[in-house]
From TrEMBL:
Residue intervals of the YhfM-like domain: 44-144
PROSITE patterns recorded: PROKAR_LIPOPROTEIN
InterPro entries: YhfM-like_dom
Protein name as annotated: YhfM-like domain-containing protein
Amino acid sequence: MLKEFMLSVSILALLTSCSSDTLSEAKNNINAVAVNEQNVTLQVSKIENKNYTLYKKIKDLETVNTILNVLQQVPWKNAKVSMSHMPDYKIVAITSNPQVSYIQETYDLWISPKQDLIEVIIEGKSKYGKLSKEDSTLLLKILETQ
């Protein structure tokens, strides 16, 4: 799952950043991502006193894969939304390998009052989606355990 995420992020980065890359250079970049996938860390921030602070770093490959898979499965809609409060969590995927280029995305998450659904946007993009109850429960369990 992480391979697919990193592969799609790499392809997007290659297409948008350097249109003059040759096909062999693009293949080398994609292979570098696949080899170095274990270097991905998810940084989860939580709001405290109107500011976001680092809540936890998730380095466990299985947990990272689970979270990224859930975020990939979101049925995205092209929409700009205005929420009534700031996001409950922010998730950013960071790679520790400086040779891997990718577009860093920040996911903003809002938890419903009943704690059973999560709404998510990708910062800086007009992407909005709602997780299923099952995915919301899974993600909340991961986010709320220390």
